[in-house]
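Example with several molecule types.
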Amino acid sequence: MNEFLQLAIAGAATGAVYSLMASGLVLSYSATGIFNLAYGAIAFCAALLYYELNTGLGWSIVPAFVAVVLVFCPLLGLLLNAAVFRPLARATDEAKIMATVGLLIALPAIARYIIELGITRFDWGIPDAKQVTLPPGIWRSPPSVSTLPFDVILDSNKIAVFVTAAIVAVGLWALMRHTPLGLHMRAVVDKPDLAALRGVDERQTSAAAWVIGTVLAGLAGVVGAPVINSLQEASFNQMMFVAAAAAVVGGLKSIPWAFAGGLLIGVLESLVRRYATFAEDINGFNNIVPFVVLLVGLLFLARDRGRRGGSVVAQPPPVDWTDDLSVWRRRLPWLVAVAAFYLWTFVFLQDNGIWLTNFGTGLAYGIIFLSFVIVTGQGGMVSLAQATFVMLASFVAGRLIVENGLPWGVALVVGTLVAVAAGVIVALPALRLGGLPLALATLALGFMGDRLLFKWDWLRNRQSGWQFDAPEIGPFDLSNRTTMIVFLSLVLLLVTWMIWNLQGSASGRSITAVRNSEPASVTSGLSIPRTKLAVFAVSAGVAGFGGVLFATNNGSVSDGTFVTQTGLAWLAAVVLFGIRKPQGAILAGLVTACSSTIFTGGFHPAFLPTFLHWDGLDSSISTYVSNILFGLGAIQLAREPDGILSITARQNRERRDKRRAKRAGAEAAAPETPTVVTEPAAVPAGAGAGARDGDAALELVHIRSGYGPVEVLRDVSLTVRPGRITAVLGPNGAGKSTLCATIAGLVPVTSGELLQRGAGVTTIRTPKRAKGGIVLAPEARGVFPQLTVRENLTVWLPDAADREQAFDRFPVLRTRQDLPAGSLSGGEQQMLTLAPLLVRPPDVLVADEPSLGLAPLIVEEILGVFTELRDRGVALVLVEEKAKGVLEIADEVSFLSLGRLVWSGPKEDVDDDLLHHVYLGAPLGGPDVPSATATERGMQ
Amino acid sequence: MKGWKLRAIAAALAVSMIAAACGDDDEGDGGETTETTEATETTEAAEDGETTETTEAAEGDGGEAAAGECEDGAEPIKIGALTQAQNYAGLDEGINAVINRVNETCIGGRPLEFVGLEDDGSDPQRNLELARKLVEQDGVFAIVATSAVLLPATTDYLAEQGIPYFGWGFMPGFCGEGSTGYGFNGCLSAFALGLSDSGATSLYEPFAEITGKSTDELTYVILNSDDDAGRFGDILYSQLFPEEQVLASEFVPATGAADVTQYVNLVLEENPDVTILSVDFATGITLKAALAQAGYEGIVSDYTTYVPGLLEASPDTAAALEGGYSITQLPPNEDFSEASQQIAADLEAAGSELPFATFGALIGYWSTDLMVQMLEAVAAEGEITSENFFAVIEEGGFTSETVEGGLGAVTFPENHFEGVPCSAAVQVLDGAFASAVPFTCYENIPLR
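Resulting structure tokens for the full complex:
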């Protein structure tokens, strides 16, 4: 029993480190929607800095700790927030994952590079930290050991971890439950748009989340380094992946559960090590516990994930920036590049074995990288296990050739098929998961491959691996490097052709359909499991196929050739050059292969004069430099799914367009821009459009707005006065919600002006507008369902006395104050939405469909609230589809149809004729109200 | 990759103990005259007068080409180094120390040129790429190659290209027919590769000296890392040590084994004379500290922690290792032998700023020293070409010269198939290594 306890407690110490990381991961994920795969890299940087300050420069523990955790980490958090995470806020899941992968690669390289420069260039006199035994702790150095009851032995480093973890757990709980910041963060997590409408600035909460998250990572790094006994970036990354498992235990949203998950994994690891004696002979069995937890956790987690596979915000297809050019001109650059490549290969490089090998390697990488184009570029799923397929296929092929003496071609086919089978197995969880969980699942499988499968001597032939002799295939003697290049080029061409065909085929279309919308695909009769399985299987097959070719070109494969983390670097490289087109992948392959040679060996082509030659970098520095370049590139380009190639193409197009415009301008007096000529809507009465009106609480002046290329509001002008109710009525699709969102600032104004009390607020962001008095009660209840009733009120009414007033006004809310708002009835929720407004009346209140779905009695009560607000001087805009209730209390009425205000005037002038016209399109008596033209309908 | 890296290092170090390097016998009474000493004399002579008599340094029968004068405009013999920089800091300084000494007189009239050190960052693929770079771009004649990721992918390539490489022979590439690798202590993985049925008594003889007990009565607990090296070590130890003397043997996880409680418990329970740690570096340090703190009074020893420079760089590590032993295949600086003084002098002469010979410097030094001896032997027979090199060394046979307190003689091609069974024991006392049993050659005995 004592032993059990000892092991459990000792394991919990490691677990506490996981817990620290997991809670930071969950906090930042839930507050910002970005799961930071670079979390371990941040922890590593903090631990490294602490080591350099403490051990290197001899700072004592406290100043070093303060400098790292309380100064460096918050600054790093702010920097990352501004430079990396904020721009990603609205990006797709894939973009987020790929950007954090880029960060994971770049960050440690930057840290190492700075240290290297500091030592070699600036004589900082610090250790290079490449091999640190016993990283320093934060309590006693060297650590002391205490014996606790039950003979539990703990050293001071572990006690420090426990104490830190406990403090953090309590601190986080207090922060989230009892501070305005915590409340705001939870509000943003719950409903980001609503939070903005309630004056919560997402930018601030996001910055705060990253600062806290980075501090937690730093803490985990500093106190964790002596416990995991390492100062290598890779061990911190693995720690992060284990923490991801803990985060999954917490459903990726519960900090306490994530915390417990970390402890649980630590304890499990320790106990399995001791008691799983049955597995003693299985090499590596003890090392896979966290990844089993991750996988199992994900399978359960998948159940209640609302968003599903390819939860990609529907991405527009890649834009063809060259569609203005003739076919010949479009293909010319590629033809020239390919011709140059082969000219170089056959003419200049014939006696240069190293470059011939590189080109071969690059082409083999190209084939492997095409698998990313299939699974991520086309399939919209991020797979982090591609290296596993590569290794698996090459091991199988190696064994078949070397041990079983099978011909190379047979081994290639079998290896590929095994990879396909593995792909199907990986895809099984993918059938239910999408986006992030899928990426994590593939990662778990990848690590289980590294740690268990590829430690299986039967498969990998011990450490030595398998040596391949290049075969002769028909006319190709692959031991000749040039022949190998030709052969690989042909194979590459074949695979590319296959992908192009796939893109244009029915299967390609179903892949796109499934990726963009699963429900829609199902209704179209597509089999989602089959499509996803097919994508994964084909991608795995291509990766495996490329892997065998790589091993053949390379001459061997061993368990160290590639690991899962290599696959992450590959992903960064492909993202950099464009993950949606085969060209990008091929280029990425060649650059990956050649960059390492250029960085270490320099560049000495015979046809260039010597002053253009370059001798390269020191081999350790060159690794950092290439990691920094690829990593930062991937961060930048994660949102640009077509990579560098597309950016270049776009810039060229813009240049061409400009040139053309100039030429056209010279030829003829420039005609007007082809956009629709603005024709002011006929506004028969009252609204005083376009004139600035000092008395108005809110004025819309010729407002146009919409979503990207789709314009919804077209030249809307509206004036709302204090103490008046303006009803905006219109049928479905008229642009009512867009009008509300535009007033609140959720949808940007493309032209026109928005004035509040005569002052322009067009460019002011939503939270500030809300604080300034323009408040929107959104459609479908403005409550945070996960927050309690009291917390909902607190977001708008931080003062307890104000909340009491609200309870007095709606006593039913008081009785439910500790319930989550989501459990209230519709009417109660609407009361909760309006209650704070009665206590602190805004300047302008815009209510989007306030009566939707409510019982008539409740509607009456709600309308009563509106009249009360009007009487207190609030300017109200009530936007409704149904005219009935609102017309009773409205002072002014405007009708919105197809994005235009077709009629505005006092309520008294509204009659059935008008209503018929607006809702049913019946012709109106007067000639001055144009009905929407057919073309406008088309545009809608 | 770290777990992987650690395992690779552990693998490297543990496999290396199949046999141990060797110097003179434990009396330390001289052995043969030393190559290095003579070379230094030559150096001094060269400084004194224009022409120097060739000492009998090399085989002597090659005439004036063997050693002596550098010829103007002679093409340098290019040497490269391929390593895991993080584990072998100072490797280049050790190499340069030898080259600097040799270049006073050159080899066959030709100077040695060190083209530089390449760091594979513990990535086998990179190791291969860098080997290609050294061979095909830099045009090296030979390589000092010491890395736990020097796998057959690289060594097969080097053999194919006819490039000899020199280093600490713990990787399989230093072994077997057709290998162009020369370990300064032979092939250390012969048993693992099935090339040899013997094991080195140097693995345990020092324990008898330390405890004063006979090797027949010592008891052991052996902790192996749960990886290739550890699993292989387990087989070796079970055949080398008498069954009844091994009280327990356990596998310790190879990745981030933060928690060692259960192993400490095991040792306390069995209370052996010697606890042998055949685990990765970090875990070894943790275990040593934990055993000491738990009050275990027997000897704790490993085969990996004699790393000159380690204790100075990290006082915490020194504290954790305090009192513990390590058995090493390298002649320790702390023996203060002729060999270690020579190394210190050569390093200083080459302008090294190292305060002492670090682990990496020692490996670089001994590797290059063996290379130079071989090149001199080749030069004595004729021109230094790849072809001649293998003809002289492999077909003619080669035995290295030794110096007092230095490595033992290594003979090729024989030592492609067996290691050299020598070792020393050091103890950490007051934060520094101290000699416990001086560098001694034992024997290879048949395994059960």
